[in-house]
From TrEMBL:
Domain HTH luxR-type: 149-214
Span of domain Response regulatory: 2-119
This protein's record includes keyword Signal: no
GO BP field: phosphorelay signal transduction system; regulation of DNA-templated transcription
UniProt-listed InterPro entries: CheY-like_superfamily, EvgA-like, NreC/VraR/RcsB-like_REC, Sig_transdc_resp-reg_receiver, Tscrpt_reg_LuxR_C
Stated name of the protein: DNA-binding response regulator LuxR family
Pfam families: GerE, Response_reg
Residue positions, PTM 4-aspartylphosphate: 54
Signal peptide start and end residues: none
Gene3D superfamilies, per database record: 3.40.50.2300
Length: 222
């Protein structure tokens, strides 16, 4: 698979490479530092399977750059990777054709999980992004595509929610134990309860369910 990373910061482009190779070890990673370069790569390299796009790089005039790219490769998922992830930014990007919106503040593992979701045909957006649907119901766009019964996150205890949030960020049991000042065996017990309550068979499935639902750790979990 060919993946185009369009960002004017070389440090960002280089930093994404190992995570994209984790996504697909055989992936060819293509670079672009401006919208013009991105369009040139797209025209010269037919068959690009995924585009990661920075909205603030040179040549981008708002969302017109995204629209220009989508016009050329309408079937290819374009994911915005940006340091700016306000509700308006996210919703506008989705309306313009973005398949996902990933803040640059997420961990590399969380980004890989989000991109896997996008490549499976889902949308991935920050879980704090909500908007009104035609029936005036507030929905999370990350869960816009049906994924079965809604995960019952309201059944999680406060501690279980904290542990699931750490899990989504890609942390190991040992790292979670250190972060929450708990024993590693305690983390394992809590994770078994999390899996049972949200209907996950294992760690990877728990992360997928959380990402698909757009779940975010609330301030209070009953």
């Amino acid at each position: 698979m060919q993946i185009l990373v369009a960002d004017d910061h070389k440090l960002v482009r280089d930093g994404l490479r190992p995570f994209l190779q984790e996504l697909d070890p055989g992936a060819e990673i293509l670079d672009a530092a401006t919208l013009g370069e991105a369009i040139k790569v797209i025209e010269e390299k037919p068959g690009i399977g995924l585009v990661l796009l920075d909205l603030m790089m040179p040549g981008m005039d708002g969302l017109s750059g995204l629209e220009q790219i989508k016009t050329r490769i309408p079937e290819t998922p374009v994911v915005i990777v940006s340091g700016y992830s306000t509700r308006d930014h996210v919703v506008s990007a989705v309306q313009a054709g973005a398949a996902g919106f990933i803040p640059k503040t997420v961990s590399g593992t969380a980004m890989v999980n989000a991109l896997r979701l996008v490549l499976s045909g889902e949308k991935y957006l920050p879980s704090s992004t909500f908007f009104e649907d035609p029936n005036n119901q507030t929905i999370n766009p990350a869960a816009a595509k049906p994924t079965g019964a809604p995960p019952p996150f309201d059944r999680l205890s406060r501690r279980e929610g904290e542990i699931l949030a750490q899990l989504v960020e890609g942390r190991t049991n040992k790292e979670i134990a250190i972060a929450l000042s708990l024993q590693e065996i305690t983390i394992k017990v809590h994770l078994r309860n999390v899996y049972r309550k949200i209907g996950a068979a294992n760690r990877a499935q728990a992360v997928r369910i959380a990402l698909q639902s757009g779940w975010v750790m609330p301030e209070v979990i009953n």
